[in-house]
Amino acid sequence: MLLNPFYPFTFLKISSLKATIVFLSILLIKANLLRLKGGLIGGLFAVILISGILASSTVALGSLFYAYRLKKKSNPDDNQMQDLETVNV
Q1: What's the CA gap between 79 and 13, in Å, rounded?
Q2: Can you tell me the distance from the alpha carbon of 66 to that of 61, in angstroms, rounded to the nearest whole number?
């Protein structure tokens, strides 16, 4: 059997193709991981914003309920008009 004189070039060509495939696979995995990381960070940021909105609206509703309860407890007799007199110095 005769040896191919171009065998080293064929070997180099196949090796470079394998290295290129490995390099492109690493880049693809890296891109997918970066996309996943960005999605997780964005989701966490959205959850923080939504929880802040819920907390502030809960505080606002609680203060409205507290003011309504205070108004309900006060007697209508306490809200009479008072005659104010001027003070002479």
Answers
A1: 96
A2: 9
Residues 59-72: tens digit of each pLDDT = 999 999 999 998 88
The predicted model scores a pTM of: 0.53
Q: How far apart are the first and last CA of the chain?
A: 128
CA atoms of 58 and 60, how far apart (whole Å)? 5
Q: In degrees rounded to 5, what are phi and psi of residue 80?
A: -75, 155
Q: Is the dihedral of CA 37, 43, 47, 49 positive or negative?
A: positive
Q: Which structure tokens are listed for 79?
A: 């809200």
Q: Determine the Cα–Cα distance for residues 78 and 36; give it in Å rounded to an integer.
A: 63
pLDDT at 82: 63
* Helices (H), ranges, the chain: 7-73
